[in-house]
Structure formats: C-alpha cells, structure tokens
Amino acid sequence: MIEKTSFFAEPGRRAALPILVLLSLGFIAPLLAVVGFSFMPARTFGLWHEPTLENYETVFSDNTYISLFWSLGLASATVVLLALICYPVAYGLVRVFGRWSTVLTLLFTIPLVVSENIRLYGWVLFFIKGGVLPGTLRTLFGVEMGDFLFTPAAVLFGMVYVYLPFMLFPMTLGIAMVPNQMREAARDLGASRWQVFREVELPLSTPGLMIGSLLTFVLAIGAIAEAKVLGGQRIIPITHDIEIAFTYAQNWPLGAALAVLLMLVVSVLVLIVLRRFDLDQILGKR
C-alpha cells in the first residue's frame, strides 16, 4: 500500500515555505490584483463588481495603444544601439585595456549612485537653447545648433545613456567567459581575425549579449523619466498613461488594463527570444 505524504514532508520543501509565502504575498498577489482590477468597471476601487471588458475596449478605441508602440519602438532602438556601442567597449575592458579596465569600469559605475532625474536634468542644461553645447558652438564656431531637446532623438539619447551599464556589464561577463584556448586554437588552424571573432568569440559571448538585451529591453520599455525630462511630454510612453490613470484620472481599472497589456506584450516577446535561443545549450549545460 502506498502511503500518502504531505507536499511539505521533505525538509527542503519545508525550508522553501517562507520564500514561497514571501513571493506569493509580494509578487503573485499584486499581479493578480492588477489583473482583477483590469476587468472591473471604470473608476471603481474594489474587486467585487461584475467583470467587464470595457477597459480594454477603451485602450483601443481611444488610440491609447499608440503609446505602447512608442514604448516598444524606443526600447527596441535602445537595445540595438547599446548592442552596437557596448560590444566594442566590453571587448576592450576584457581584452585590451588591461589594468585600466578597473578604472574605466568605475567610471561607468559612478553615475549609478546619482539619481536618474538629476543626470537627465544635467543633459537638459547641456542641450537646451543657450545651454552648454549650443552656447559653445555659437561662441567658438558661430554655428547655430538646431532644436535637439524635446524630440524623439533626445528621448532615445537619454535611454541609451541611462541603460548603458545594464547592457555593458552582462556583455563584459559574456566576453570574459570565452576561453583564450579557443581563440588560440582557431588561430593555429589558420583562421583570420575576423573569422575568430565571427566563429568563436561572438557565439560564445552570446549569453552576455542576450541577457544584457533582455534586461535592457525590460527596463527601457518601462522608462518614463526620459520622456518627461528630455522629451517634454511630446512623446507619451505607455508608462505615462498608466501613471495618469492611477493618479490624476483615478481610473484604476484602466491603468490596470494598460499594465496587463504591457506585461503580456513584454512576456510574449521575452518568451519568443528565449525559445529562439536555447540557454542550456549556450551556457554549456547540455
């Protein structure tokens, strides 16, 4: 006769119980509350009303979904630009700069201890009409700089600047994981410098590139300060609409519907990427 045992009979499961409770209360429960609110009537503050789809209908009927496209476009462009910028820098930190790598790493890290808003307002003073850059160009070269601030390019610049460390450091780790023996073996077999990079270094550093891209994309799609400070609210990301719905509009169900829509889109995109790249195979687990 097979004895029935409790799920928490094993010591490991009992030890994991506090973590499960913490995750349930701090992560799963708020998500379920947001999903539940998204089906409540507009401008209600309880979960005990008859479910409705009017909030999702409002998102698409009022063209609110356009803000989602702005967020997706800016986040994707940020990832592409950072991948192109950070790979050479990360390669230099690992293979070229030697003892100066620590100093350069600190230079990339120090801005993180300063508030993001303070750094962005610093760029406002740098780019604003009559500011540091336009004033310098006019004084020294007699060149009048066009309007850069409060444009999509300014927002993209701010996102690239803010999220650069989140792409750079995982990419640096990925490049550092490439064994020197692999490159030396490729050179001994007659591979050119470009072939070594294309066939050895780039594939083996893919985990760092992919992790950095996913991390940067998830953070960038939720960006709001860059659009407010550098974009002058001429560009409205979906996070701005969520903030307005939960605060000034006092329409929690609509804000919840926007948040659920954002979570679904991000989750689907991340799952597509994870299915495209086999992490176990890339990391050498099989």
Commentary on this structure:
- This protein is mainly α.
- It has one domain (68-284): MetI-like (MetI-like fold, Orthogonal Bundle).
- 71% of the residues lie in helices and 0% in strands.
- The chain has 14 helices and no strands.
- The chain starts with 10 loop residues before the first helix and ends with a helix.
- The model has no long low-confidence stretch (mean pLDDT 85).
- InterPro entries: MetI-like (IPR000515), MetI-like_sf (IPR035906).
- The chain crosses the membrane at residues 20-40, 68-90, 97-114, 120-141, 148-169, 209-231, 252-274.
- Keywords: Cell membrane, Membrane, Transmembrane, Transmembrane helix, Transport.
What's the quick description here?
The chain has helices at residues 11-37, 54-61, 65-96, 101-109, 116-127, 132-141, 152-176, 180-188, 193-204, 206-221, 225-229, 238-246, 252-276, 279-282. By secondary structure, it is mainly α.
Any idea what the radius of gyration is? 24 Å
The secondary-structure class comes to mainly alpha
Secondary structure: number of strands: 0
CATH topology: MetI-like fold
| Shape, principal axes of CA atoms | globular
CATH class: Mainly Alpha
Termini gap = 38 Å
Question: Spans of 5+ residues with little confidence (pLDDT < 50)?
Answer: none
Main sheet makeup: none
**Percent range for helical residues?**
over 70%
**What's the overall average pLDDT, rounded?**
85
| Oligomeric state, counting identical vs distinct chains | single chain
CATH superfamily: MetI-like
CATH architecture assignment name = Orthogonal Bundle
Q: Summarize the helix and strand pattern as letters.
A: HHHHHHHHHHHHHH
